[in-house]
Design goal:
Layout (H helix, E strand, L loop, with lengths): L4 E8 L6 H15 L5 E3 L14 H7 L6 H9 L5 E10 L2 E10 L2 E7 L5 E2 L2 E2 L12 E4 L2 E5 L8 H9 L4 E6 L7 H16 L2 E6 L10 E3 L5 E4 L5 E8 H10 L2 H5 L11
Parallel strand pairs: 1-2, 2-3, 9-10, 10-11
Antiparallel strand pairs: 1-14, 3-4, 4-5, 6-7, 8-9, 11-12, 12-13
Amino acid sequence: MAKESLRIGLAQLEVTPSKPTNLGKILDSINSVGEKSDIVVFPECSVGFPNGKLSGEFVREIAEPLEGNFVRSVAESASEGLTLVLPIFEKADGKVFNTSAVIKDGKVVGAYRKMLLFDAFGFRESDFFAAGSEMVLFAAGKIMCGVITCYELRFPELMRKQVMSGARVVIVPAAWVRGSLKEEQWQTLLMARAAENTSYVVGVGNAHSAFIGRSMVADPYGVKVLDLGYGERVGRFEIDNSVVTEARDKIPVLQQASKVHDIPCRIL
């Protein structure tokens, strides 16, 4: 039986305040890794991020609809058979969403709007963005993928819901803010989510100076199998679907987890 695999490209971009500059970086990344990949993933805020603090004015100015020029230009560069996960600031219904567009064969097939916004560590993402209301899954090749965004990594219920709905790989575009022990938190959470869900987890970080970069892949046993380190760079990893099956056979946490909701909790 032929091995089912997914060749994934990770584009750890150093995003700038300039939308045209960022578009050029994205197109260069597709040219660099797209030909040998089935899917290429970009970091949160790929459309742009200021040199200072994020502002409502900046977000409104750089936001655009899914059918806008930025997404269309990226989609048109994608060859047949290539899937892209492209985070933008999406303008829709008089609001702005922190959105990851899913592009397949040169067309936008859907999008995930970040639901749990980063209102923590003194920052209020909800001042700039509206929250999404549903999760999405999509097939890349023959492998089902889910997507969550950055801060949502701290909520194990989200990834568990996607995995129980069929995801075998969960993609996490991020702009993980620098700070004390933040790199350790980011990588520990990625590995923990992978282990507890016996799934591959792919985190793609923004290399802007405000963020940590450190894109990585954790396998279904929670082992770090790729780490891009710091700065702007691209990487590749081939995901083996049989490793997911093997891990789920050996460690049936997903089967056992289905019983957890029915367990009573008694206060002593």
